[in-house]
Amino acid sequence: MMTSYEQARRNEGMWEMDHAPYLRSRRYQGQRCDDHLPALLIITTSGASSQMSPIATSATTNGDSSPSPQHRVPLQLTGILDDIPFEEITPVIGREYTTLDVRDLLKDPQSDAKLRELAIITSRRGVVALRNQSVTPQEQQELTARLSLLSGTPEESGLHIHPVLNGQRDKAYRATGPNGEASADDTISVISSNFRKKTDDRLAQIQGGAAGEIHSDITFEPYPSDFSTLNIHTNVDCGGDTVFYSGYEAYDRLSPAFARFLEGLEGRYAQPAFQRMAKEGGFQVHAGPRGHAANVGGDLSATHPVIRTHPVTGWKSLFAVGAHFESFPSLRPDESTLLRAYLLDQVATTHAAQARVKWQDTSEGKSTLVVFDNRCVFHAATPDYFSKGGHRVGTRVVSVGEKPYFDAGSISRRDELGGERYI
């Protein structure tokens, strides 16, 4: 059954189904190897199965006259993961699985259909915590790449290379390879509290204290991230939680008049802190390409909508928040500063729009792997364990998505779900 949004799109003549088969691009292996994916199946309410329609596209615009084929009809859940137990972390953001094993999921005969479902769940819930995992960095890399591709990322987008935290600059940021060697693949970043301890005071001064921790990954790129995965495999006894903030809920809490005002704005997204760190450290920012041909150079800045439409859900989300957001170019500097501070404060202080993920004890060799969608979620680490001498290490993989856009015909999360449904 069509959602009201899909029906409206059809009535406008924009509900055009692309019947070409899905293509799998093994970008996580560093090669091109395109082949047809097996047909994905939808289990209908009657119990029968039918072939899943490929990702639909529609011709909307980026604020100019050029159509953008990545503005798609929202993807629909099939229910293929409904038999796996889960808990919603809060009513508006976050889900937790304790028995969904990533390693098994990657090898499952219905792997593509289940990964696509997990991607849609993540896009709707914002963040998904997968407990009791024992994945390698390479399996985490595969998971991230396939979540992105199966949910419709542009074919030319791949995995991101961090401009600062990469193994080309410092071997300390290289993950372990399949045979125990240091991996030369810079799309896998090692996240270590040792780096944070060295830079925390400086970053806090640059970013403005605790609220300055809030960000979405790599929004300073022309083509920013869709999904990030973070696996903490060496943990601390207490503390270090990560807080996630819903951009959907932040939008839904705006007054209609204020929302319309923000929908007409674009913002400048930049990260000069990385450039300063490179200058002070005597190294060069990674020149790219960083996951997309457009993500090149050392400028680390881009222009994106303040409110963006999520291509997987069709929902509006506040996007212009956090450490990687700089200003509103169309406003006066004083107006821009006030508005930036106001939006950040609304996100940071609205507890009902937040989910706190506690990283699971890894004493039994298991870890927590978190998947989150940077198009609709902000996050912030909590470095409250530094004074206790704790140390933790993990791996991060970030996939690159589409160029952000705002579709005036899109709706909000609350418009579709109301106050009763979680997903």
TrEMBL record:
List, alphabetically, the Pfam families matched. TauD
Q: Where is this region: Disordered?
A: 51-70
Polar residues composition-biased segments: 51-69
Q: What UniProt keywords apply to this chain's record, in alphabetical order?
A: Dioxygenase, Iron, Metal-binding, Oxidoreductase
Gene Ontology terms for molecular function: 2-oxoglutarate-dependent dioxygenase activity; metal ion binding
Annotated GO CC locations: cytoplasm
Report the residue ranges that make up the TauD/TfdA-like domain in this protein: 87-396
What PANTHER family does the entry give? ALPHA-KETOGLUTARATE-DEPENDENT SULFONATE DIOXYGENASE, TAUD_TFDA-LIKE DOMAIN-CONTAINING PROTEIN
Would you identify the family this protein belongs to, as annotated?
A: Belongs to the TfdA dioxygenase family.
Name of the protein in question: TauD-domain-containing protein
Species in which this protein is naturally found: Jaminaea rosea
